[in-house]
Amino acid sequence: MIRVLSSLVAFFSITALCAQNPAGEVPKLVVGITIDQLRGDYLEMFRHTFGQKGFNRLLANGLVYSNVHYDFPNLDKASTITTIFTGANPSYHGITAEKKYIVAQNREEFSFFDDNYLGNFTTDKRSPLPIKVSTLADELKIASGGQSDIYAFAPDASQALASGGHAASGAYWIEDVTGKWATTTFYKNKQPIVDQYNRSAQSLTNTIGSITWRPAIDIARYNAFPYTKNRYNFQHYFGLDKKDNIRLFKQSPYVNREVAEMAIKVLESSSLGQRMNPDYLALTFYAGNYEKALDKNYSVEIQDTYYCLDQELGKLLDAIEATVGIKNTLIFVVSTGYFNEQETLPEGMVTSGGDFHPDRSQALLNMYLMALYGREQWIKKYYNCQIFFDRKLLEDKKIDLVDFQQKAAEFLVQSAGVQDVITSHQMLHGAYNENVQYYRNGYYKGVSGDLFLELQPGWKVIEPQSSDSYRVRYNAVVSPVIFFGSNIKPQKVERTIEATEIAPSVAYRLRIRAPNAAGGEILKELF
C-alpha cells in the first residue's frame, strides 16, 4: 500500500512539474521575423512614438538579447539572412553577397540565379539551390515527414529564398518591375491567396500609381534628431518615376505593409499552426534609409518608417493571437546587423581620407605584375573589395598561384587607402589570426576572389563606370534579438550573441535537428 501511495505521489509530482513547465512544449507555429538594417539605437530613440502592440510589446514581454554579431565582412541582406536561417557563415552556406562575379563568364549575376527554373509572375530565374547547406525550414520539413507548411514573404528574392529554404511550400517576393508577388517554379505548390491577390484590383501593380508616402503622424513627434533640417510634411509619389517606382517603394514603410498583409491573409485563410506538426512563417521587413530623403541619415522619413513598422508588427501579433495564439507560437525577431549610410560631408570639409578608385588600383597592380611575369592581362576583375585573377592564364604559364598572390598582396597593401590585403591561400591554409579568420568566414571557394581588400575608414570608394560611391565605415550596428511567445519568460540579457546561434536554438526548441552546418551554441536562456 505504501509502495502504491509512493508511486502515486511521484506521478502527480512529475505531472505538476510538467504543468509548470509549458516552455518545454513544442510550438504549433514558428514565425521568423528578419528586419533588414534594424538598429537598436533607433529603437530606443523612436520608442516614444510607438504604440503598445508592436515593438514595445516584444521588448517588454520577450527574451531580449542586447545585440547580434555577424562574424564575416561586407554584410548585406543576402549573406546575413542566409546565415540566420542556416546557422552557418558564408564559408559553409555559399551566399557571400546579393550578387557574385562569375570569372569564367566575366559577368555579374545574382547569387540565387538558377537557369534551370523559371519564375511565376516574374521573368527572373531563381532557386534556393545556391544555398549549399540545410536551413531551419528544411530540417522542420524533414522532421515532419513533409507535413509542415512553410511560407516566406519578403521584399526581395534573396531574402525570401534564404528564409524559406529548399523545402518551402512557397517563398514569395515583390517583383522589381511589376510589383507582383513572385516566386520560382522550384517550388511545386502554389498558395492560392497569393495568386488571387496578384490578379486583384488591390495588387501593387494596379495601385502603386496612386500611392503617395506622407508622414503617418504629426511630424512634431519625429524629434529624435537635433540634426534634421527639413522638418516638413514630405510627399513621395511612387507613380512619378515609373522606371524606379518599385525599387523606391521597397525603401518605404509601404513595403512592410505589403509583407504584413500577405502574412495575415495566409494566417487567416490557411490552417497554419492548427495541426499536430509545427508550421513555419518567415517574414522580412525593411528599416533602412530612403535614398530620396533630403536629410539622409537624420531624416523624418526614417522615423516614419520605424513608426509604421511598429504598427504593422502590432497588427501581425494580433493576427497570430487570433488565429494560433501567442502561447502556441514561437516568434523571433533579428536584424541583419548592418546599416547603409548616406553620409554627406559639409561643403568645404576636408577629411584625412581620400578617394579610392578600384579601377586605378587594378591597373597599377596589373602593370606591376606585367613587370614581374610578362605583358598579360593578369587581373579579371575588381569586385566587392576583391581581386579576381585569371587562373587559367596562370595555369597555362605554369606560374605558382601562392607566390603570385603573395607578391600582388605585398604590392597592393602599400596603396593609399588600403589597410590590409589577405590572400585566399592565407584564408584556406595560412597561419591563423582573428582578422584572417574573420575574412575566411566570408570566403567560399569558387565564388570569392584571390585577394580580399580591407580599406581604411574614411576613404571614399569611387566605383568604376558607376555613379555610386560610399565612405568606408566599420561602426558596429547594435541590434537586439527578441524571442517572444511560446511561454518564454520575459528577460533582458546584456550579451552579444552570434547570428549562428539562432537557428540551432530554435531547432532545439522545436525538437528537431539543427541545420547541418550549424555549429553555434544553444542559447541557454531559451530553456
How would you characterize the overall build of this protein?
This protein has 527 residues and is of the alpha/beta class. It is 33% helix and 19% strand. The protein is built from 18 helices and 21 strands. The chain has a ten-stranded mixed beta sheet, with helices on both faces. A four-stranded antiparallel beta sheet has the order 14-15-17-16. The protein has a three-stranded mixed beta sheet with strand order 13-18-19. β3 (99-102) and β4 form a beta hairpin. The longest helix is centred in the middle third of the chain and has 24 residues, at 300-323. The chain is globular.
General shape: globular
Terminal residue distance: 38 Å
Give the percentage of residues in beta strands. Answer: 15-25%
Q: Catalogue the unreliable spans.
A: 1-23
**Secondary structure category:** alpha/beta
